[in-house]
From TrEMBL:
GO molecular function: metallocarboxypeptidase activity; zinc ion binding
Protein name: CBPM Carboxypeptidase
Species annotation: Machaerirhynchus nigripectus
One Pfam short name: Peptidase_M14
Record-linked PANTHER family: CARBOXYPEPTIDASE M, PROTEASE M14 CARBOXYPEPTIDASE
PROSITE patterns referenced in this protein's UniProt entry, alphabetically: CARBOXYPEPT_ZN_1, PEPTIDASE_M14
Active-site residue list: E274
Gene: Cpm
Domain named Peptidase M14: residues: 14-304
UniProt keyword list: Carboxypeptidase, Glycoprotein, Hydrolase, Protease
GO biological process, one term: protein processing
Length: 435
C-alpha cells in the first residue's frame, strides 16, 4: 500500500509522455480505488488510449442529483500546459480528500471527469517544443480537432476523427453539466458562441447564446481566480481582453469548435481556457503555471452547482426521460431534455425564473423558482415535476433535434413556445375537421 501511495504521490513538474501519463493515472487509481475510476473512452488514430480519470464519492456511475463535470486538455497536441496541470489537479484532489473540508464536500457532491490529453498523437509528434506553432497541433491525420465537430451554424464538411467521435460519444453517454477545454497560446477565458450569424449578433461582432449571462459569469469566475488572467493583458501587448474574458466570435470566428458542440448538442456549458502565451513552455515553468491556475480550477468546478436541478416523474413516481425542461425566455435549438433517470440540470444565475417542463403530448407544467447562489453549499436548488396524467406505460420520445441545427431557427423556436390566438383557432378548426 505504501508503494502504491508513493507512486501516486511521485508527480514532479515535468512533461509526461504517453507511457508515463498512463502509469501515473493507473497508480492514482490503484492508490485511491474507492475515490477514482479510470477508463479509456476510445483510441487515437495511432491507437493510443484516450484516458479519463473520474473522481468522486461514486466514481463508477452517475448518481441522481450529483452533477457531472469535465476538464479536457491537450486537444491541440502542442498546447501542453493544460495536460500537466490537470495531472497536478488530480494529485491535489485525491490527497486533499478527507483532509480539506472544501475538497471533501466538492468530491462528495460532484462527479469530476478529467481527460489530460485528447490528442496524444499530436503531443508525441511535437519533437521540438515551440512557443508558437508546430505540426503537433493536429492529430495523426493532420486534422485540427477543434474544427472537427458538427457546427451549429454551418454544414461542417470535416471528416469526423476517432478522437472527436470518442468525445462525442462520451458527451452523449454522460449527463455533463459544465466543462472547460484547456488550450495555450493566449491568456483568456473564451465562451460560446465561436461561430454565429445575424440572429446571434454576428453583424455586431458578438455571437450571443441564450445563456450569455451565465457564460460571462463562468468565464469571469475562472479569470478572476487566476493569478493574472483577470488583468486582461494580451500576449502581444496589443490585443487586450477586458477582465480576462472574451466572446469566442468576438475574438475570431471558428467553425466546428468543441465548446459550441457541448452547449448545443450536449446540454453542457463549456468554456475554452487559454492558459499560456507560450504553447509549449519549458518544463521549469510548469510549477508556476500550476500555482497560477490552482484556485481557478477549483472555483470553476464549484459552478456546476449553479441554478436548478430536479426530476420529472409520472403519477407512479417513475422517471420520465426526454421530457423538455427549460427556463422561459431561454430556448435552445436542441431542447434541453431529461436523462434516463428523468433528471435535468439548468445553470442559471441567482434570480427569479419560470421553469417550463413539457412531456410531449401533454400540457406543460410551469413553476416559478427563486434561485440563490448555492455553489458554496455544493447543491443547486431542487425543483421536481410530477405529471399525474402520465403513466409508466407512456414513454416520452426524444424531442426532435436536427443534426445541423442552424441558429436562424432560434427566433422561430422561441416564438413557437408561446401559443397565439391564431394557433389556438387553427388547432380548434383541425380538431373539428378530424372529428
Amino acid at each position: 500500500i505504501l508503494c502504491l501511495v508513493s507512486v501516486a504521490a511521485a508527480l514532479d513538474f515535468k512533461y509526461h509522455h504517453a507511457k508515463e501519463l498512463e502509469q501515473y493515472l493507473k497508480g492514482v487509481h490503484a492508490a485511491y480505488p474507492s475515490l477514482t475510476h479510470l477508463h479509456s473512452i476510445g483510441r487515437s488514430v495511432e491507437g493510443r488510449d484516450l484516458w479519463v480519470l473520474v473522481l468522486g464519492r461514486f466514481p463508477t456511475h452517475h448518481k441522481i442529483g450529483i452533477p457531472e463535470f469535465k476538464y479536457v486538455a491537450n486537444m491541440h497536441g502542442d498546447e501542453t500546459v493544460g495536460r500537466e496541470i490537470l495531472l497536478h489537479l488530480i494529485d491535489f484532489l485525491v490527497t486533499s480528500y478527507g483532509r480539506d473540508p472544501v475538497i471533501t464536500r466538492l468530491l462528495n457532491n460532484t462527479r469530476i471527469h478529467i481527460m489530460p490529453t485528447m490528442n496524444p498523437d499530436g503531443f508525441e509528434a511535437t519533437k521540438v517544443p515551440d512557443c508558437y506553432y508546430t505540426r503537433g497541433r493536429y492529430n495523426r491525420n493532420g486534422e485540427d480537432l477543434n474544427r472537427n465537430f458538427p457546427d451549429a451554424f454551418e454544414n461542417n464538411s470535416a471528416s469526423i476523427q476517432p478522437e472527436t467521435r470518442a468525445v462525442m460519444d462520451w458527451i452523449k453517454n454522460e449527463t455533463f453539466v459544465l466543462s472547460a477545454n484547456l488550450h495555450g497560446g493566449a491568456l483568456v477565458a473564451s465562451y460560446t458562441f465561436d461561430n454565429g450569424n445575424p440572429v446571434t449578433g454576428s453583424l455586431k461582432g458578438y455571437s450571443r447564446s441564450p445563456d450569455d449571462d451565465v457564460f460571462i459569469h463562468l468565464a469571469k469566475t475562472y479569470s478572476s481566480n487566476h493569478a493574472s488572467m483577470y488583468k486582461g493583458t494580451g500576449c502581444d501587448n496589443r490585443k487586450t481582453f477586458p477582465e480576462g474574458i472574451t466572446n469566442g466570435y468576438s475574438w475570431y470566428q471558428l467553425e466546428g469548435g468543441m465548446q459550441d458542440y457541448n452547449y448545443v448538442w450536449g446540454q453542457c456549458f463549456e468554456i475554452t481556457l487559454e492558459l499560456s502565451c507560450c504553447k509549449y513552455p519549458p518544463a521549469d515553468q510548469l510549477e508556476q503555471f500550476w500555482r497560477d491556475n490552482k484556485v481557478a480550477l477549483i472555483e470553476y468546478i464549484k459552478q456546476v452547482h449553479l441554478g436548478v436541478k430536479g426530476q420529472v416523474t409520472d403519477k407512479n413516481g417513475n422517471p420520465i426521460p426526454n421530457a423538455i425542461v427549460e427556463a422561459k425566455g431561454r430556448p435552445h435549438v436542441c431542447p434541453y431534455r431529461t436523462n434516463e433517470q428523468g433528471e435535468y440540470f439548468l445553470l442559471l444565475l441567482p434570480g427569479t425564473y419560470v421553469i417550463n417542463a413539457t412531456v410531449p403530448g401533454f400540457k406543460s407544467m410551469l413553476k416559478t423558482v427563486e434561485i440563490s447562489d448555492n455553489t458554496g453549499n455544493f447543491s443547486a436548488l431542487k425543483q421536481d415535476f410530477s405529471f399525474p396524467e402520465v403513466s409508466d406505460q407512456i414513454r416520452s420520445r426524444a424531442a426532435s433535434c436536427p443534426k445541423t441545427p442552424l441558429y436562424q431557427e432560434l427566433a422561430r423556436a422561441s416564438a413557437a413556445v408561446k401559443p397565439t390566438v391564431h394557433i389556438l383557432v387553427l388547432m380548434t378548426v383541425m380538431l373539428v375537421i378530424f372529428k
